[in-house]
Structure formats: C-alpha cells, structure tokens
C-alpha cells in the first residue's frame, strides 16, 4: 500500500503522481525536489554555482512548468540577474514548487 506523502490518499503501487493533489511520489531524487517559495531563489542560485547543472526547471504543485532556465557559462555572469528576477516573481505567486535539474554527463 502506498500513500501520498502530502495528502495521505491511497495510491496504486508505483504511482508517480498523486491523482488527488498532484504531488510527486516515490523516493526523492537528487535531481528533483520540492522547495518552499522563500527558498526558491537561493536554491536556484546554489544550483547554478554547483557548475554541473545544464538546465533548471521550476514546476508548480500540479506539475506545470513555470520556468525553464538553461544554465550556460554565460548565465552566471550578467545574464543571471533577469533570470533570478523571474524566479523571484514565481516565488511571489506560489507557496511551493518543484525543481527539476538536468546535470551534465560525467
Ligand atoms: Zn496527494
């Protein structure tokens, strides 16, 4: 028996999403995690500075993509500020979101 970690709904074995609240299920993957909106900007900044991140995708609780941030060497410089502003705007709209990270191979 599997229960949604967020709302406690009974879920079929192996369910990836809760059909009731939409929360992601399963063991937390290091490439996908949930953050509170007040931590969103800081988390995105930290990921960019990890250096092996290729893309950061921010989703809401329903799994809708809010922002796709392609991380290239250039993003760390002057281009970063408008992206962080966009991330900050998202943080103001939602209380919680999911971040998916694509990392470089190797
Ligand atoms: Zn649920």
Structural class: alpha+beta
- Proportion of residues in extended strands: 25-35%
Bound ligands: zinc ion
Portion in helices: 25-40%
- One letter per element, helices H and strands E, the order comes to EEEHEEHE
Spans of 5+ residues with little confidence (pLDDT < 50)? Answer: none
Taking Cα atoms only, what radius of gyration do you get, to the nearest Å? 15 Å
Give a structural overview.
The protein has 106 residues and is an alpha+beta fold. It folds into 2 domains: 1-27; 31-103, Dna Ligase, domain 1. The chain contains 2 helices and 6 strands. The strands form 2 sheets. Strands 3-6-4-5 form a 4-stranded antiparallel sheet, with helices on one face. Strands 1-2 form a two-stranded antiparallel ribbon. 14% of the residues are buried. The model has no long low-confidence stretch (mean pLDDT 85).
């Amino acid at each position: 028996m599997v229960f949604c970690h967020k709302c406690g709904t009974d879920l079929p074995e192996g369910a990836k999403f809760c059909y009731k609240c939409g929360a992601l299920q399963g063991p937390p993957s290091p490439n996908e995690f949930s953050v509170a909106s007040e931590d969103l900007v800081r988390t995105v900044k930290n990921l960019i500075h990890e250096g092996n991140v290729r893309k950061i995708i921010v989703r809401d609780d329903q799994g809708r993509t809010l922002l796709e941030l392609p991380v290239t060497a250039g993003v760390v410089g002057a281009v970063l500020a408008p992206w962080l502003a966009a991330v900050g705007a998202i943080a103001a709209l939602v209380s919680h979101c999911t971040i998916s990270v694509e990392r470089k191979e190797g």
